[in-house]
Amino acid sequence: MLTMNEVSVQSTPESTTIEFPRFGAFTFSLADIFDFAWGLPGFPALHRWVALTLDTQPNFVWLQSLDDLNVAIPTADPYAIFEDYAPRIPAYAIASLAIADPTDFATLCVVIASADAEEISMNLFAPILLNLKNRRGRQVPLDGSSYSVRMPLPRKASAGEAAAVQGA
Questions:
Q1: How far, in Å, are 42, 43, 109, 119 from residue 152 at the CA level?
Q2: Into how many domains does the chain fold?
Q3: Does residue 163 lie within any of the structural domains?
Q4: pLDDT digits (tens, 9 = 90+) for 72-89
Q5: CATH number of 147's domain
Q6: How far is it, in rounded angstroms, from Cα 9 to Cα 2?
Q7: pLDDT tens digit string along 18-28?
Q8: The domain containing residue 94 runs over which residues?
Q9: Does residue 111 sit within a domain?
């Protein structure tokens, strides 16, 4: 486990720069850190995360652990991909994250890709809620929901596929 204490970290009162193994150097404010008091499934001991957006992957948000720098989880905004996504957020999640207003939080869902990225899906069943005001986060299973843990992401047709469809 590579922790923040074992890598090059440069800090000022306003910001921190960390050299992440996967992404290189990133500078962020200490106020950008999200606390996941309950951890995340598979990562119960990792509580401090920062959301990173890469210029090369503008549609994805990487949740990068600050407790183990080797752990980064790809996520995306489910509403940008699935227009009809309408999860019913359980009351316990709203209370535990102290969400007072719908504008207080953002929703992300974990993206799963096969090794060759041939198959890419999204976990719509358990969205990650981020309180943007108090910087708390939590992944919330939607009990009783019919949303899939592996909903295939729609793909844009390649130029060859589009030509084949038009010619048919």
A1: 22, 24, 13, 7
A2: 1
A3: no
A4: 999 999 999 999 999 999
A5: 2.30.290.10
A6: 13
A7: 999 999 999 99
A8: 4-153
A9: yes
